[in-house]
Design brief:
CATH architecture: 3-Layer(aba) Sandwich
Structural class: alpha/beta
Distance between the termini: 19 Å
Bound molecules: adenosine-5'-triphosphate
Shape: globular
Strand content: 25-35%
Number of domains: 1
Largest sheet: 7 strands, mixed
CATH superfamily: P-loop containing nucleotide triphosphate hydrolases
Order of helices and strands: EEEHEEHEHHHEHEHEEHE
Strand order of the largest sheet: 6-7-8-3-9-10-11
CATH topology: Rossmann fold
CATH class: Alpha Beta
Length: 241
């Protein structure tokens, strides 16, 4: 059974349809990258899976259970964690407090304060510092750590390298490597195609709220993805499947 099933999902912002009748099955442990130009609907899709944006129609199923009407905090407790675009930390709270913030929704599993700090060693000297004082890379590490503290089975990563220096991106992805080896399912939005190909098992190209192509990362080229990215290819292709 798929870990996550998205069936005919439509999500709107007012009258604007951001995700359009989208269907996607994701297997347990699979790493899926959503690729597409600005406004393609990637962020809205992740937010709708996490339950912080409402579905207009269609379903989201977690391990076969329909969670479309389940509020976000209950989805978090059921195993879905979102690392939102822009990180959204509590700037006046310490790093440790930010990491502990979702304590009530925590599930049992390998992640706790110690293991998160082990995975993101740059946070160790900063645990008592205000999150607002951190560098971009440290803030992103905190945001990912906060999501991991839930011990999710599904981790949704929205543009974790946005606005970071190349060195900080390197640090964040080095820490993510440990995560990639685990069975956690990852749905990731990443503008950097090199990173995308390094991380993903499957690449899903989105345009105007729908899927225009998808395929195994090892059977797609960057050039193909770029063409779909800019909408230069005919839609509905399944690449290398
Ligand atoms: P980006 O890379 O820019 O984040 P995206 O692929 O993640 O793009 P979304 O952010 O999901 O796309 O946006 C999809 C569509 O929904 C766009 O047309 C965008 O302008 C619109 N949209 C997104 N957020 C809102 C909002 N809060 N209110 C109104 N429209 C929105």
């Amino acid at each position: 059974m798929s870990a996550l099933q998205i069936q005919g999902l439509t999500a709107r912002h007012g009258l604007l349809t951001a995700v359009r009748d989208l269907t996607l099955d994701i297997a347990a442990g699979e790493k899926v990258a959503l690729v597409g130009a600005n406004g393609a609907g990637k962020t809205t899709l992740l937010r709708t899976i996490a339950g912080v944006h409402p579905a207009f129609s269609g379903q989201v199923l977690l391990d076969g259970v329909d969670i479309t009407a389940t509020p976000a905090h209950k989805r978090a407790a059921a195993g879905i964690a979102l690392v939102p675009e822009g990180r959204r930390l509590f700037a006046d709270m310490s790093v440790a407090e930010n990491l502990m913030v979702s304590r009530s929704a925590r599930r049992s599993g390998p992640w706790n304060l110690d293991t998160v700090v082990e995975a993101f060693p740059q946070l160790k000297p900063k645990l008592k510092a205000r999150a607002g004082e951190l560098s971009g890379g440290q803030q992103q590490a905190t945001a990912i750590g906060r999501a991991l503290m839930l011990n999710p089975t599904i981790l949704l990563l929205d543009e974790v390298s946005l606005g970071l220096s190349p060195l900080a991106v390197e640090g964040v992805y080095a820490s993510l490597q440990a995560l990639l080896a685990m069975r956690v399912t990852i749905v990731l939005v990443e503008q950097d195609l090199k990173r995308t190909f390094a991380v993903a098992d499957r690449i899903v190209c989105m345009l105007e709220g729908g899927i225009v192509a998808e395929g195994r990362a090892d059977q797609m080229s960057r050039e193909q993805v770029m063409e779909y990215y800019f909408g230069n290819r005919a839609p509905s292709a399944k690449v290398g499947a």
